[in-house]
Structures are given as structure tokens and as C-alpha cells.
């Protein structure tokens, strides 16, 4: 077999190749999610989903998993942003009245 001459290189990607690629995107998404890098996690899951959907089919278990994970991370990201916005809302000087009070005190 080692001495067999290879005339034509197989450049065609197999379904296994696309499965492995989709799994790789899934793993990157999981790591990004663990690091709370929501946007990057979403991109990884969504890219994996697009690959899986195109080459494995919409009903393939990996396709469904990637879509579910992408949606879950989007929800976490949205919740995190809302929490961040709420926590910053009360501490901003214009919300606490500090600016107005300071201006009033400096004018008199």
C-alpha cells in the first residue's frame, strides 16, 4: 500500500469532515460560553449550526444542538446586558441626583 502511486488527491470533503467541523465549532462555542464571551460563543454556535444544517441536514442531532445552544447563549447575553444596564442605572450620577445637588450647591 505504501508503494501505491497516488494519481489523484481526494479533495472532496466527506460528511464525517463536516461533522468534525461542526463539533469543533460547538466546542469553541462551549469554551467561549464558559469564559462568558457571549458574542463569540454565539458566533461559534451559529457558524457550526450553518455548517451542520447545510451538510448534515436540519433534523440532524448536531444541527439541533447547535441551534439550541446558540439560542441559549443569546438569551444569556441579553439577560447579562439587562442586568449590567440595571446595575449601572442606579449608580450613574444623573440617576442618583448627585449632579443636580452638586450643581445647586456650587451655585450658592
Summary tags:
mainly alpha, elongated, Kinesin light chain, 108 residues
How would you portray this structure in words?
- The longest helix is centred in the last third of the chain and has 29 residues, at 61-89.
- Helix content is 75%, strand content 0%.
- It has 108 residues and is mainly α.
- The radius of gyration is 25 Å and the shape is elongated.
- The chain has a domain at 15-88.
- It has helices spanning 15-34, 38-55, 61-89, 93-96, 98-107.
Architecture blueprint of SSEs:
Elements: H1 15-34, H2 38-55, H3 61-89, H4 93-96, H5 98-107
Helix pairs in contact: 1-2, 1-3, 2-3
Number of helices: 5
Mean pLDDT figure: 84
Beta-strand content bin: under 5%
What's the end-to-end separation, in Å? 95 Å
Return the string of H and E elements: HHHHH
Could you say which structural class the secondary elements and strand pairing correspond to?
mainly alpha
As a whole number of angstroms, the C-alpha radius of gyration is 25 Å
Compute the number of strand runs: 0
Region (Disordered): 85-108
Biased composition (Polar residues): 88-97
Protein name: Kinesin light chain
Quickly describe the structure.
This protein has 108 residues and is mainly alpha-helical.
Amino acid at each position: 500500500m505504501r508503494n501505491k502511486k497516488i494519481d489523484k488527491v481526494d479533495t472532496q470533503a466527506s460528511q464525517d469532515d463536516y461533522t468534525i467541523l461542526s463539533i469543533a465549532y460547538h466546542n469553541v462555542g462551549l469554551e467561549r460560553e464558559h469564559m462568558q464571551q457571549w458574542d463569540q460563543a454565539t458566533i461559534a454556535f451559529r457558524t457550526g449550526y450553518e455548517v451542520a444544517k447545510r451538510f448534515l441536514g436540519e433534523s440532524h442531532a448536531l444541527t439541533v444542538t447547535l441551534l439550541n445552544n446558540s439560542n441559549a447563549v443569546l438569551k444569556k447575553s441579553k439577560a447579562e446586558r439587562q442586568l449590567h444596564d440595571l446595575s449601572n442605572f442606579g449608580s450613574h450620577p444623573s440617576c442618583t441626583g448627585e449632579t443636580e445637588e452638586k450643581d445647586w450647591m456650587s451655585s450658592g
